[in-house]
Specification:
It is globular, with a radius of gyration of 18 Å. It has a single domain, classed as TIM Barrel (Alpha-Beta Barrel). The protein has 292 residues and is of the alpha/beta class. The strands form two sheets. The protein has an eight-stranded parallel barrel, surrounded by six helices. It contains twelve helices and ten strands.
Length: 292
Amino acid sequence: MADKDGLKVPKDYHIAEPFANMGDFHVKGANSLDWGMKKHLSRIFNPKTGHTVMFAFDHGYFMGSTSGLERLDLVIPPLLPYVDVLMATRGALRTCVPASNTCGVALRVTSGSSMLDDDLSHEVVAVDIEDAIRMNADCMAVQTFVGADGQLSSLENLSRVINAGLKYSIPTLGVVAVGKQMERTDRFFKLATRILAELGCQIVKTYYCENFEEVAAACPVPLVIAGGKKLPEKDALNLAYKVMQGGAAGVDMGRNIFQSTHPVAMAQAVHKIVHEGFTDKEAFEFFEELSH
């Protein structure tokens, strides 16, 4: 067993050096994966840019009806042309999203307690691999709670999903949860994102933090950064710009899109930053033009 005593504190992340094992594939850490995995990842990350705009609206799996998502059937369809990936539950996808859309699918496969419970860290794998295949999922999303009470069970869930995904060539998206008692420091995110990647995740979703460039450099798979709570549009676009400049492969702007005063315009502005190299200032000006 590895001994944690006497380990050196890491400090050299070689931030200026690109990932060394890219080969001829556009997704970080995926050069040695099989054809099926790469095909799914190419539906998540645009082959021309290597980036993604993920749109999460899976909040209802523990929150029920959410502000801005009261009517999924009305909110989601207008956004489909401007996002790359839909992160959602199978129930929401089957009932409210036209199957004719061309977006990738990040299928939420874990669930647990509702928002009425103070502890959300004890989840189970609620969707089996057969249904993920029926849903034509491009990746399976698993909530993980590194450092929380439910750490062991959530990492066991993650490993089960990764193993099933490898059997059928479906990537796994490990989602780093941050509870009330969990620190939002670069030290924590370096730990959590690296653990998920080393367990076999092909994608990790996490949060922005100080020294984010080091977090991104130390993780050998692509990071998609969550927008978190609703921010003013200008601030949300600034966040999107900072994470892309810091080495993220994409953003997930759920609430910062569907709770925006102009969701479609906001989705387009985020797309400009992620795929067209707009600055946050340029994207905000674009948003304002579309909003008036």
